[in-house]
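Limitations

Structures in this collection are predictions, not experimental determinations, and the ligand pose is part of the prediction. Treat each record accordingly. The example that follows, with pyridoxal-5'-phosphate as the small molecule, is included so readers can see exactly what is and is not provided: the inputs are given verbatim, and the output is the predicted complex.
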Amino acid sequence: MNETEKIDAGQTSAMDLLKKSDRTPAQEVINVTRASLPPLSEYTAMLQDIWDSAWLTNMGKYHETLRAQLKDYLSVGAVQLFVNGHSALELLLQAMDLHGEVITTPFSFASTTHAIVRNGLTPVFCDINMKDYTLDVDQLESKITEKTSAIVPVHVYGNICDVKRIQEIADRHHLKVIYDAAHTFGEKLDGIGVGCFGDASMFSFHATKVFNSIEGGAITTRGESAELMEKLYELKNFGILGQEKVASVGANGKMNEFAAAMGICNLRHVDEYIAKRKQVFDRYIERLRGTEGLIIPEIPDNVTSNYAYFPVRFHGFRYQRDEVFMNLKKENIYARKYFYPCINAYECYQDQYRAEDTPNALLVSKEILTLPIYPDLSLQDVDRICNIILHGEV
Ligand SMILES: *Cc1c(COP(=O)(O)O)cnc(C)c1O
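Predicted complex:
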């Protein structure tokens, strides 16, 4: 793996974004995403309260406000907030008291599998389907053994998994279902909040996501799930239950007040962010639709999308994925190879797994490119990106 690939394997870090956006507009760098920011005055107005109360973290006023607002916005029964999405997922897996094997997808961000492994559990990779790149439910049952305790599917790119069939299979085998819903903030399936499916779902509020609290994350459930929510509260606060009682081996997963305030500000604007993303998304569709060798997203009628990503697969196209990547890069446009390599090809997992065992994920990881999409990306820039993709130059 060369250095560029190594960087591309990861997520655009917030530092990357800051560095690159500093250089805009002089070099007109376009990244795959750009953090959404509320008007600065809205944020600074909230800081006064924090200063007055001197309450900076540990489930303060803004933490509780954001929690209530998200419950409403996401149309879920309960929300627990965390310092980031990964920590939320790790602690959720711990709270579920799982054992043995956990079936998951190799076509995701590193966090999904790492959270399983860091809980002392064994990931078992199930391949993805070629339609929306989520778990191939036809293969799911064949991965279940007597050691399986849970399934961790990912709504990758905001494509909602086949939640109905996954639940049927899970019920038949008495397995927990935990969704990595990091890509699906605010999405709905048949009018139901995506955070209602399975036993629980994890959302990420990282700077690069549709909705951000700088860093942040949440676990949601369909019902009130009082017991699980209390357990999560305990685990994100070191397992402390009272001044003189530490009940479990928890971690520090608390969201602070500055992050919560950012979340409250961004939540006021998130519908507008999503509407602007839709314009970008629709322009890509308009410009790229019907081109031989390009496979572009399709949003089912019963899904309310957040337009988080625009993945394009180059399959029999005049240029290979890596050529398109380079053609864009020459123009200072940084599309990303999400998700390349797939997780079962990572250096840290190569002793235990073979990417060839999940051929669909392996193929897609080599053919896919996610194009820049964020609220303030201009349609002229989208046109420029499409010209480079289609013709190799502007
Ligand atoms: C962003 C992301 C995570 C991790 O979320 P953080 O808030 O960055 O910790 C997990 N899974 C997927 C699929 C993601 O995209």
